[in-house]
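Progress against Task 2.4 (sequence-to-structure conversion) is shown through the following example record, which the project officer requested during the mid-term review.
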Amino acid sequence: MRWWLIAVLFCGRAFAAPAPSPHAIDIPAWFSQSFLDIREDVRDAKAANKRLMLYFGQDGCPYCKALMKVNFGDPAIAATTRASFVAVALNIWGDREVTWIDGRAMPEKELARMLRVQYTPTLLFFDEQGGVALRLNGYSPPDKFKVALDYVRLRQESKQSFADYQAGLAPEPTGAKLGTQPFFEKGPPDLRRALAAGKPVLVVFERSSCRDCAEMHRDGFSRPEVRKALAGFTVLQANAFGPERDWARTLQITNTPTLVFFDAKGAEAFRVEGYVRAFHLATAMDYVASGAYRSEPSFQRFVQARADKLRAAGQTVDLMK
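Structure tokens generated for the chain above:
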């Protein structure tokens, strides 16, 4: 009896659920408990007259928390998502095996690396054949997120680009004015001319009716750390839904603001597409200006390293301030 009790206690310890991470993100209970075969998930969604939404996140990510608490905390958004999509969650550092659309099996973290997931959350919306109908890199506030959900659930990707869909909902007024900054190059944006300065180039794609753009001007660009980082670039401003619309289409700009970084030779080095606060704004600039993007392909690892370095120096790091 004694040995039996010891065995029971041992097994109880061996198979007890691990304590939850203090930085874990609570995923809504209505997310699917998938076997992580994406092919099957696409088929199951189609059979239910829905589409697959694949979420890439990580513990401790404030933008992932905002997606779950703010976006999916909105009853209308939650109802629309549940009615139209099968939602599956993946961890960009996870070890669970995932079978991709082409049949290859790999850990979550390898799939995230293969798909070049640089931001969390990143969302992939699939069509019925397993193609990606829309990809959202980074956090989209509720108003923009609703537009993205409608675009995919209404099967608009076969009719028009996401950028054109958005423009149709809210056309850019003729002669629309964008926010101004003293560090913007004067005159129409010209990448070739900007490269003549011999520095990396940052192109800020905006539109006039863009709340996140206004916040970036009001808050992000006013921060001392951001202003310091901007000194390493020649900075251009472009209207993604106005005069520079064709350039934005060529670069597949679907969100405003989008910040596209070019190296000194004119090759795209990196871009910021989702909603970000000042810390990530300055970190993205440092990532490119320092050349770290060449040796560290994971922006998330660079973010973690920079935050750890600042904390070690005694600074308080708040990713959302």
